[in-house]
Design a protein that fits this description.
heterodimer, A: about 240 residues, alpha/beta, Rossmann fold, two-stranded antiparallel ribbon, 6 helices, globular, B: about 300 residues, seven-stranded parallel β-sheet, five-stranded parallel β-sheet, elongated, binds flavin-adenine dinucleotide
Chain lengths: ~240, ~300
């Protein structure tokens, strides 16, 4: 079986980010970059599938500048067999990224494209569904459980109401939600050892030609400072006064 | 032609979509995929597909992409279901998409939160059609206006994915997205039974809904559909009571539009006190029963 796992380099979700004064982007001074947490969950699931069923090749792919190599090295250390960096300094929007990933998938012919449901930087939640649409693959987004069945997978996914279970034939696309697994920790020696695994660089095959463009970014309006109350009776009185009880 | 198609996956989404539709400022049609359509929402055309349920994404997206071909804008209320489907429609139409719009500057410029709401991005679409999901909280509630007649749409939908099981909407509590009052609990709520008794008990006393943090859901204390935040549900009640919740960026991303946020936390330095309108430093196991009692007295 072959599994393709896209990996995005994002600012550490636990860091505090600010806009640049001119609103042209995020101030990244002193900020760490990580694998998008949902992509890490996707990679972990691919590795677990290999541990369960044996013959699985896992390819991690990232689109971006040479800095993404850092995240791909970590993906190799977590268990990807090889990594591909589609190297570009152009800005791709979600559809542009989906086109690139779809082109790679056509070459690599994975049984499963397994990816994060959203990136914690742009919070778009689009690319997986777009790749599935372009390749006309059945999809199961927001997966919380993946089991293999003959010829395909059975995926439990999180929904607005709770859960649903879908069965998909190979090839298919799955996006991950938080509950799917807890990614393993890789220590530095693991990352160094993974340096011998192949990481290939190649140019993008499509031009970025974005459909959407960020005009500016800014801090959200601040909430007015609140106040502390000493006890519940005072609280109840204030809430009644505000008309919310 | 510039025209907006609003897609209502469930019938009650339509009325909550009109504020956004009117903010875009284009004439709009509403397509009801399921249920009984409302005809007094100011739409040019009121279309009904009469599906018994929304089929898996690949099938419904193919239908919607064909159906929406004539529109410049195709929009749906943000939900897990609309995100699953609309981005696939965008992919099929090779169109751009804007997720979670919270503001409209013009029919091609929208505002949306990124980075768990710590930044607001203004984004412009460079081509049409454009697909959108939007959060209703920031848009005014519309007046109900003149009736349009319902046009039935034939929808034959074939999905490659097979749905083998699903949970139904359960319980009698209001929907998180529409509740006026929400009581949410975090990690310190020991187990599911305690969560239900303490958090559920206060919610029921207030006629409200129940929410939870990721930490509470991950540890099996609360169901996943109750998760509020960046990657869960976005809520905008009049009153949000957060009990035993630290105030992570990811959780706060989901509650910013609440009118009044109350925090109950035993740690005076908990970050949630920076956001809350009203805070009490207290053990929730003391404060919540006292709160219920104070309500009972009145
Ligand atoms: C990719 C990603 C996505 C995420 N998405 C979400 C999301 O959508 N929603 C979400 O909620 N989180 C999300 N998180 C997780 C988030 O970062 C926090 O870990 C989580 O919100 C913390 O939950 P908590 O406040 O319940 O737990 P904690 O941070 O552990 O806080 C518990 C609080 O309870 C207080 N406390 C303890 N005992 C008592 C008591 N007896 N009485 C009163 N107070 C008490 C403590 O002082 C503490 O402040 C996400 C994280 C990542 C990385």
């Amino acid at each position: 079986m072959k599994i393709l796992v896209p990996i995005k380099r994002v600012v550490d979700p636990y860091s505090r980010v600010r806009p640049l004064p001119d609103g042209s982007g995020i101030d990244t001074t002193g900020i760490k970059f990580e694998i998008n947490p949902f992509d890490e969950i996707a990679l972990e699931e691919a590795v677990r599938l290999r541990e369960r069923i044996g013959d699985v090749e896992i390819v991690a792919v990232s689109l971006g500048t040479s800095e993404c190599e850092e995240q791909l090295r970590k993906a190799l250390a977590m268990g990807a067999d090889r990594a591909i960096l589609i190297e570009t300094d152009q800005l791709y929007d979600p559809l542009g990224i989906a086109n690139e990933l779809a082109a790679l998938a056509q070459e690599f012919q994975p049984d499963i494209v397994l990816m994060g449901k959203q990136a914690t930087d742009d919070d778009c939640n689009q690319v997986g569904q777009m790749v599935a649409a372009i390749l006309e693959l059945p999809q199961a987004t927001f997966a919380s459980k993946v089991e293999t069945v003959p010829g395909g997978v059975r995926v439990t996914r999180e929904t607005d109401e709770g859960h649903e279970t879908l069965e998909l034939n190979f090839p298919c696309l799955i996006t991950t939600d938080l509950r799917l697994n807890e990614p393993r920790y890789v220590a530095l020696p693991g990352i160094i050892k993974a340096r011998s695994k192949p990481l290939d660089r190649r140019p993008a095959v499509t031009s970025s030609s974005p459909k959407i463009r960020t005009v500016r970014v800014e801090a959200p309006p601040a909430r007015q400072a609140g106040r502390m109350v000493t006890g519940v009776s005072e609280l109840v009185a204030i809430l009644k006064d505000k008309g919310v009880l | 032609m510039s025209k907006l198609l609003v897609i209502a996956f469930a019938p009650d989404e339509a009325v909550r979509s009109v504020g956004f539709a009117q903010a875009v400022g284009l004439p709009y049609d509403i397509l009801f995929l399921t249920g009984e359509p409302a005809t007094d929402l100011g739409a040019d055309r009121c279309l009904a597909a009469n599906l018994s349920e929304v089929p898996p994404a690949d099938g419904i997206a193919r239908f919607l992409a064909d159906f929406a071909a004539e529109y410049s804008h195709v929009a749906a209320l943000s939900s897990m279901r609309s995100k699953d489907v609309m981005a696939r429609v965008a992919g099929r139409m090779r169109a751009g998409m804007i997720t979670d719009a919270i503001g409209v500057e013009s029919p091609s410029v929208f505002r949306r939160p990124i980075l768990a709401g710590s930044i607001i991005e203004t984004v412009e679409t460079l081509s049409f059609p454009i697909l959108l999901t939007f959060r209703p909280a920031g848009f005014p509630k519309p007046e109900r206006t003149g009736a349009s007649s319902v046009e039935l749409i034939a929808a034959t939908i074939v999905s490659a994915a097979t749905r083998v099981a699903q949970t139904a909407q359960s319980g009698t509590r209001p929907d998180l997205g529409q509740a006026k009052v929400i009581v949410s609990g975090g990690r310190p709520l020991r187990d599911a039974e305690t969560f239900e008794r303490v958090i559920g008990g206060l919610a029921d006393r207030l006629g409200g809904a129940v929410g939870a943090t990721r930490a509470a859901v991950d540890s099996g204390i609360a169901h996943n559909e109750l998760q509020v935040g960046q990657t869960g549900k976005i809520v905008a009640p009049d009153l949000y009571i957060a009990a035993g919740i630290s105030g992570s960026t990811q959780h706060m991303a989901g509650i910013k539009d609440s009118k009044v946020i109350v925090a109950i936390n035993k740690d005076p330095d908990a970050p949630i006190f920076e956001f809350a309108d009203l805070g009490i430093v207290a053990d929730l196991y003391d404060a919540i029963p006292a709160f219920v009692q104070a309500l009972g007295d009145s």
